[in-house]
Design brief:
Elements (H helix, E strand, L loop, with lengths): L6 H18 L29 E3 L2 E3 L11 E14 L8 E11 L8 E3 L3 H15 L6 E2 L2 E6 L11 E7 L10 H9 L3 E6 L6 E4 L3 E4 L8 H26 L19 E11 L1 H12 L5 E5 L7 H4 L5 E5 L9 H8 L5 E6 L10 H11 L4 H5 L10 H21 L16 E3 L2
Parallel strand pairs: 2-6, 3-7, 8-9, 8-12, 12-13, 13-14, 14-15
Antiparallel strand pairs: 1-2, 3-4, 4-9, 5-7, 10-11, 15-16
Protein name: Dienelactone hydrolase
Pfam family, one: PAF-AH_p_II
Keywords: Hydrolase, Lipid degradation, Lipid metabolism
Length: 431
């Protein structure tokens, strides 16, 4: 799978891949089988970045951290059909179908409704699976609303259009699972496009409520992982093509549902970046290696198992790892780092774990205060999110993602990337 790699390197990558997937599947279907679990004992989140769950009439309302940028946010979902490809994960002859969400600065939001974190059937299945895995009822728990308004009019391209950032989730993850980071970028003037990789994601809800469940094994083989990476790359290229149509005023949605007003001309695709969590970060590296439309990328705690580790990149790339994952113990990062020929940065988030880089830490901190969790569940989940408080983890990720894309897509340097900052003592610059 990796060119010019000896067998020992391949074995080390295989071990790292399986370890990451095992961590992701700690308790099966908790939080929609994306490998997110409930932790206990972290410091309470601060008010600046993490809202408490609300309780009314005996119900618990989970909440996401509020975005910190100056822009109001709109969002819309698109059903894309790639008729040039047969879907590689199903036996029946069917074109490849994807769901994406576009998050954008909104012109106005008054009178519009806030978009849910998950659509209705996905939310019901998610709660059912999570209840079963946790061994406790979530009947009185309401999943969060986002801070974006459904199909709100877009803030037009005046004085100029917005840079674009793509997002790809981790193995079995769904495009909604990094909403806290996505919303913040949109609130700072980016158009952010999140991608569901159908049949690898735990489930994807299409228009009309059709649910397509994931078809991946809990622990994929190296060959299955390599195939997944190739499929993700093809998905991303297709999404880039669809965004060009969208910006030109065409409607790429398969049902031709009405698009929000003002989207035409809003996307500056000459300033496109990408980030991802876990294998989504690998996807960002691989698409950059083969498609020059993506100018800058970020990998949040994902090994580089594709050819990009050996070929490297000539454009800006940032790695963000954890105390248990980095160049000191992942040979794929070591090789990739040595082959990066453009601007590069390696950051370590102290106290983080693999699933710190999702929406789940703030949500589970609220959940564990609201519902009883069996001691045996908590005992085997303590290491899932690390020891960093959820608000600090989210604040650091938001700040460094924004600084990276501001520097490389907008040519704005706030100096946060120049060296350690007293604002974020949790961040270590790895030499």
């Amino acid at each position: 799978m990796i060119s010019n790699a000896d067998s020992s390197t391949v074995r080390r990558r295989s071990v790292r891949l399986r370890a990451a997937v095992a961590a992701a599947g700690t308790i099966g279907l908790v939080f929609a089988a994306a490998g997110v679990a409930v932790a206990k004992g972290d410091a309470p989140a601060g008010k600046a970045a993490l809202a408490s769950s609300g309780q009314r009439n005996g119900r618990v309302q989970l909440t996401l951290p509020e975005p910190t940028g100056p822009h109001r946010i709109g969002t819309t979902s698109l059903h894309l059909v790639d008729r040039s490809r047969k879907d590689p994960w199903i036996s029946r002859p069917s074109p490849r179908e994807l769901m994406i969400s576009v998050w954008y600065p909104a012109a106005r939001t008054r009178g519009e409704r806030r978009a849910p974190w998950l659509p209705p059937k996905s939310a019901a299945l998610y709660k059912k699976q999570t209840s079963q895995s946790l061994g406790t009822s979530l009947d009185n728990v309401d999943l969060p609303l986002t801070h974006a308004y459904q199909d709100a009019p877009a803030a037009g391209p005046r004085p100029r259009s917005h840079p674009v950032v793509l997002f790809s989730p981790g193995f079995a993850g769904m495009r909604q699972f990094n909403t806290a980071l996505v919303e913040d970028l949109a609130s700072r003037g980016y158009v952010v496009v999140t991608i569901d990789h159908t049949y690898e994601a735990s489930f994807v809800e299409f228009p009309g409520g059709r649910l397509e469940l994931g078809k991946q094994p809990p622990e994929p083989s190296d060959a299955e992982h390599a195939k997944s990476l190739r499929v993700r790359q093809a998905d991303t290229r297709f999404v880039l093509d669809a965004l060009a149509k969208l910006d030109a005023g065409k409607n790429p949605d398969a049902e031709h549902r009405r698009l929000p007003r003002g989207l035409r001309g809003t996307l500056d695709l000459s300033r496109t970046g990408m980030f991802g969590h876990s294998v989504g970060g690998d996807t960002a590296a691989e698409i950059m290696a083969e498609d020059r439309r993506v100018r800058a990328g970020v990998d949040l705690d994902g090994s580089i198992n594709g050819p990009a580790a050996a070929t490297g990149l000539d454009r800006p790339f940032m790695l963000m790892g954890s105390p248990t994952h980095g160049r000191f113990n992942d040979s794929t990062w070591t090789e990739f780092w040595s082959n990066l020929r453009g601007w590069r940065l390696d950051l370590r988030l102290s106290g983080a774990a693999h699933q710190t880089y999702t929406d789940m830490p703030p949500l589970v901190r609220q959940l564990e205060k609201a519902v009883p969790l069996p001691p045996e569940v908590i005992a085997r989940l303590d290491s899932t999110f690390g020891t960093i408080p959820a608000d600090r983890a989210i604040a650091a990720q938001r700040a460094y993602l924004t600084a990276f894309f501001d520097l490389h897509l907008r040519h704005r340097d706030g100096n946060l990337l120049s060296g350690p900052s007293p604002r974020f003592p949790e961040i270590t610059f790895v030499p």
